[in-house]
Amino acid sequence: MSVAQIIRLPPLPSIRDLIKLYKLRALKELSQNFLMDPRLLSRIVRSAGPLKDCEVCEVGPGPGNITRSIIQNMPSRVLVIEKDKRFTPSLELLAESSPVPLELIFGDVMNFNMEQMFNENNKMEWEGKCPPIHLIGNLPFNVSTPLIILWLKAVSEQKSAWRYGRVRMTLTFQKEVAERMVAPIMTKERSRLSIMCQNWCRVEHKFNIPGKAFIPKPDVDVGVVRLTPLKKPIINLPFDIIEKVIRCVFNYRQKHCIRGIETLFPKPVRDQLSKELLTTAGIEPDSRPFQLTVSDFGRICEAYLSICKEKPDYIKYNYRERKSDDYWPDNKINSLDSNENI
Ligand code: SAM
């Protein structure tokens, strides 16, 4: 019999009743959508792996539906980070009846440093086993994609929650974004997000949840993704360098990769240096970005850095300012915000 089957919370009003009781209408500006199906809730939580005696931080608990499922797995402690204070009574009620400590933190996860959040005894060596600490969340899409980029940077620097070791993350994304995160070479989904995620983490697209399982129902389906930080990144260079090179190359996804490489350098030296860079990296100038492995990108980054060693000014050169939708598959997500979707 699994732990989830034995642990029962004391009788609590159902999430559906709490939403009615406290008039917790889903807020458009926070892209709130609630998941009610207990089987799907426990499937998300199961995707994280065994939680017994672990510390779990849930981001965006809302009224506490995933939180209930987490508690049923008997972790040693649960922390929730929620932006919307309207959920206070519902989460406090859960905290009072929870057999494990449930700590409520109200704030924006994007500004939250998890450096001091967990028990020092749970800290593990980076090269050892993953620590008994998990991050779980069903956040709005317009938060989950920038959040994973922020967290990948923290993983690369072993800061914030990753000061405690290779902390695993189980998060939901728009299905198309989840497909991009795991996309192998030669697929149409291969994108900058594939390289960024796969460079620092083992990425598993666990399962999809149809949009109709959420209230209110979004127009798109949702993918549940688990990320486990790698003992050694494939490209062991600073995050900002890797991010810049990958962004430039994928700006011209359908073109030969030399087109994107050219944008790393100012116009007068562009032609000469981009050819030199690709020769040093051993990459055919007419290969396309989606045909390149993470290691190929590693050689491109190394060659770029060796050119920049000679001419340090090139590192500051930016072909064009970063667009806000750089990691978004298309403009769908922006339109999601306006129709009360996730
Ligand atoms: N966990 C619940 C569920 O699965 O039904 C609610 C999910 S709802 C899609 C997303 C939740 O994330 C909302 O409660 C929302 O208020 C919260 N949220 C949105 N942006 C946030 C942020 N930047 N920091 C913390 N919580 C946030």
Written account of the structure:
With 342 residues, the chain is an alpha/beta fold. Helices cover 38% and strands 14% of the residues. The chain contains 13 helices and nine strands. It has helices at 3-6, 15-21, 38-47, 65-72, 88-97, 141-157, 175-182, 192-200, 239-250, 257-262, 267-281, 294-310, 332-337, and strands spanning 34-35, 55-59, 77-82, 102-106, 133-137, 168-174, 201-209, 214-215, 222-229. It is elongated, with a radius of gyration of 22 Å. Mean pLDDT is 89; it is low at 323-342. The site of S-adenosylmethionine has 23 residues, from strand 1, helix 4 and strand 3. S-adenosylmethionine binds at residues 30, 32-35, 59-62, 65-66, 81-84, 108-110, 138-140, 143, 342.
**SS element count, helices:** 13
Give me the count of strands.
9
How is the main sheet built? Answer: 7 strands, mixed
SSE class? alpha/beta
Overall radius of gyration? 22 Å
> Could you tell me which ligands this complex binds, including any ions or cofactors?
S-adenosylmethionine
- Described by the principal axes of the CA atoms, the overall outline is elongated
User: In order across it, which strands form the biggest sheet?
Assistant: 4-3-2-5-6-9-7
Arithmetic mean pLDDT: 89
- Helix % is 25-40%
* Approximate strand percentage: 5-15%
Runs in which pLDDT lies below 50 for 5 or more consecutive residues are 323-342
Span between N and C termini?
Answer: 34 Å
Q: Please write the string of helix (H) and strand (E) elements.
A: HHEHEHEHEEHEHHEEEHHHHH
